[in-house]
Specification:
This protein is mainly α and 238 residues long. Helix content is 63%, strand content 0%. Helix 5 runs antiparallel to helix 6 and helix 9 runs antiparallel to helix 10.
Length: 238
Amino acid sequence: MKGSDRSPLPEELSGDDFESWLAEAERDPARSAEIDFLADLTAAAELERAPAARTPVPPRKVARTPARRWMLPAAALVLVAGALALWFAMRPETPRRASELAQRAAPRYVAVELRDSGASQDDGFASAMAAYARGEWAVAADGLTAVLTMHDDLEPARFYLAAAREQMGDLAAAAALWSTVAERAPGLLGEHARWRLAQIHLAREEVADARRELEHLVQQQGDFAGRARELLAALERL
């Protein structure tokens, strides 16, 4: 659309022109519905902004005019102010301790092909991981422990046993299991285990041990190298 054909925006109008635009909008159902939507949006933004306001502003006396005359010109300002207030209210605080940097959420279970392990669906791995996916950490830990008694070389079972132990609060057992997986398993699984081991060290404020594992990941130049660099940089800022 050419610039000369564009209809003026309401905020570009003033005085009689704005009154004419408002009257025309009232006769157009589609435009009138749009105005009502903006009015509702503005009211919602005001509700979001109110809890974050620090100094109450006393109301001013204004001339009585139809509500819609000020809704459209004010909508953008109110929305921006509400968004800024909400951002400041929800902004995370800067970490002050290594433990605040630790990522402790349970790793997601990703199905893997169990090559050359001798394990099968009947050996309990699948049922143990079904319990893991449901967040039944103790049930999953018991099942994975039983699997490892039959297949000690099944590193995915050891990895998720470590994860279940961590979620149960047994950080020492989790760290020992992840350390074994990090040394034994090649590729992504071993790197992920080393990353999780670094998180355990951070949670226990063992900064030197965490740095060692993170630097090892950087040297490996694998999938976790970038995240390890970012975490090392965050440690430098403490």
